[in-house]
Specification:
- The chain is of the alpha+beta class and 449 residues long.
- The chain starts with 12 loop residues before the first helix and ends with a helix.
- Helix content is 28%, strand content 23%.
- Strands 1, 2, 3, 4, 5, 6, 7, 8, 9 and 19 form a ten-stranded mixed beta sheet that branches. Strands 10-11-12-13-16-17 form a six-stranded mixed β-barrel, surrounded by four helices.
- Belongs to the class-IV pyridoxal-phosphate-dependent aminotransferase family.
- It comes from Tuber melanosporum (strain Mel28) (Perigord black truffle).
- Its EC number is 2.6.1.42.
Amino acid sequence: MAPPSAMASDLTPAAVANSIAKSSTEANNVTDQKLAELDPSKLKVTITKSPRQFLADSSKIEWGKADVSTDHWITVKWSEAAGWAAPELKPYGPIDLWPTASCLHYATECFEGMKAYRGFDGSLRIFRPAKNTARMLVSSTRISLPSFSPSALEELIKILLATDGPKWLPEPGCFLYIRPTLIGTGGALGIHRPREAMLFIVLAQFPVLYEKNMKLLASREDSIRAWPGGFGFAKVGANYGPSLIAQKEALARGYDQILWLFDKSCQVTEAGASNFFVVWKNKDTGRVELVTAPLDDKIILDGVTRRSVLELAKDRLTVSNGEIQALDVVERKYTMMDLIDAAKEDRLLEAFAAGTAFFISSVSKVHFRGEDIYPKQANGTYTGLLKGWLKAIMFGEESHEWAVVVPETGFEFDASAADKEINEMVENLRRMKDNPAFAPALQRVQAEV
């Protein structure tokens, strides 16, 4: 495989094609046999007979504490010998995996984070899905997992949403989290390219995480999330596990996320798993700037929300409109010392994190080695504008090419089969009614249902 510096991080069609070519022509994977490609038209469908519980009150969803996945998921197996098998849409359930699977021992796992939105016009939308599926291909290539067509993955996501969307996104203004994942599943131990893999897509209910202002704890000198030539640009599991101990420390000290710094200069990179932005006045020119870390060192993730913020800002905020001052959009390296100086000189106007999970979250405080740094506005004007514009696009209040409408077909549950199962259960209960354990068991069933 080409060195990381030569790999595409830009999610353009040319970059994606380059990633596919690199993945498919690697040594030990060039054969005369044409392998099967990922093909949504071969989808096999099995509809659940045991629907999962829908939690109507999203405020009761506990972040990271409960499985609130929808009724179905999609799985697709891949092998080095045959390529991609037929996709399956089936009832959500556990994975059958060898204890020696490659993903468990060598971190051959990558994923994406996306959301589906129920618009205020009733339509179901996903936000810039082509960017996510293209980035997932870049991630899979980085860890030697099989290539695939990003458009085929997008089509499978739409099919799953069309199936579970009607039930799980019932009200305007709500959303579902989408998690496409690709793992190495081969059962043979040994450090080599996975010879078997599985792609799967799950949907889950998700709490709203961006309503409160965030407080960030700057990372310590002995804790680094990513480095040049590494894999910080790829959305792979190995990026996240090592960061959890720092995140635990932040939470224990009353902060929401870690602000990740790099090298002795304390270069600012990301906030937790989100991209980080500041709005400040340039020290030399006095002009307002929207600043975020660059992609050129491949330290940070090319976030889809990040990209969208930058594009919206360039399109709508670089010219004064009478109500707000125009700003310059800047991608460059900057340090905590720059941030501290801006705060002391009253130039630090706003700060926010941007990502799929936390969306646009204002940052009210950053703690760095005993010193607290406060932007002038905890809920700034520019942050509010960018958040409002993005929400309007996502929920269909503004017609925009970034919001892709998903036609909903859904599948009807087999009522006759359900009636048969219920009759069998009733008959079993009748046979058990004289058992002393019957009454408490019946109460438990009633409580669960």
